[in-house]
């Protein structure tokens, strides 16, 4: 079996991601975190804010569970979030009402560029299909997904509209 040319893979991923924008109103909701332990400087928005053990994050329809969360703040806002877990699990409702879910060993979320990078046995799923690989980069603003690395393969599954197809 031959590998798909990069241009065809990009076209398939663009088709999958076309409406993959997360619920836009979630970004304007408060972010609630709870964990077994935290180490966070109050009043200092430059240092890391660490959460460890059974971390749960909720922001609007976004739900995250992880082993650790490292929040980096600046200018009075959270700018980056680094999550690790076995695995990190995320789910969120899209603007069209569908659910998207993701799972990976590590997640790097840059709120300013609206980019989420899933690293290590990563899977991104929504009702019409899924993409999996060692690394998935998801731009929330554009819906663009880039996946893969030089030493791994990317798997993409498109489900028919009737959603009656059985998973293999």
UniProtKB/TrEMBL annotation:
Cell location: Periplasm
GO molecular function: glycolipid transfer activity; lipopolysaccharide binding
Pfam families xref list: LptD_N
InterPro entries attached to this UniProt entry: LPS_export_LptA (IPR052037), LptA (IPR014340), OstA-like_N (IPR005653)
Signal peptide range: 1-22
GO biological process, alphabetically ordered: Gram-negative-bacterium-type cell outer membrane assembly; lipopolysaccharide transport
Keywords annotated in UniProt: Periplasm, Signal, Transport
Chief subcellular location: periplasm
Gene Ontology CC entries for this record: cell outer membrane; outer membrane-bounded periplasmic space
Domain Organic solvent tolerance-like N-terminal: residue ranges: 45-143
Family of this protein: Belongs to the LptA family.
General function of this protein: Involved in the assembly of lipopolysaccharide (LPS). Required for the translocation of LPS from the inner membrane to the outer membrane. May form a bridge between the inner membrane and the outer membrane, via interactions with LptC and LptD, thereby facilitating LPS transfer across the periplasm.
Subunit structure: Component of the lipopolysaccharide transport and assembly complex.
This protein's name: Lipopolysaccharide export system protein LptA
Organism encoding this protein: Vulcaniibacterium thermophilum
Gene behind the chain: lptA
